[in-house]
Design a protein that fits this description.
alpha+beta; three-stranded antiparallel beta sheet; 11 helices; 54% helix; rod-shaped
Amino acid sequence: MNLIHYPVQKLTALFQQQTVATLPELKSALGTPVDVTVFRKLSALPYRTSYSHRGAFYTLESLMQFDAQGLWSHRNIHFSRHGTLLETAAVLVEESPAGYRASELSGVLQVEVKDALRQLVQAGRLFRREWDGFFWYGAAARARRQEQWAAWQAQGQGSDQVQAALMLFYSLLDEQQRRLYAGLESLQWGHGGDRRMAQMLGLDVATVARGRQQLLALEFGHSG
């Protein structure tokens, strides 16, 4: 029985020639109609699949130059050190100092991300908050997303430098200090202060109320 050999060097030569290739092009280079044969040969190479174009393009890691976010593009075909669009969106949101709006992340990744973000939120891997008519996305871990939300709020204050400075200060506090700070600000606002501070700082209303109650308990405890 004669065995047909498909030298992996043919794939390497194709990538060196055109940098990226589709599955039909890889099959043509090997001279095989079988997908499994291509992937068996690819497994011997350090390769990547595009997160754009529904993963239709392949390239070699040696040909890529990732940026600081782990992204690389060739002729409007986009690849990520993190793999799929789903994984890339998850990592970028989690590692972002201030989280993302969907439109902001789409600008970074140069593809539509709403469906990927929806899946990640449904799976509990990311957190979504509605604010002023849009959705903001942050890390699932509460402490991390509170830091991101505070940083995002500080960035979005525009000319209100005092408010931006307060949000920056808040982002530097630990969890207990944030709760007490939120309670202090709530006391200054009076009626409705708990809800206002919860929305501004990305906290539960109950958390703000607890911080306010702790401050009042401390005050009355000292006065007694």
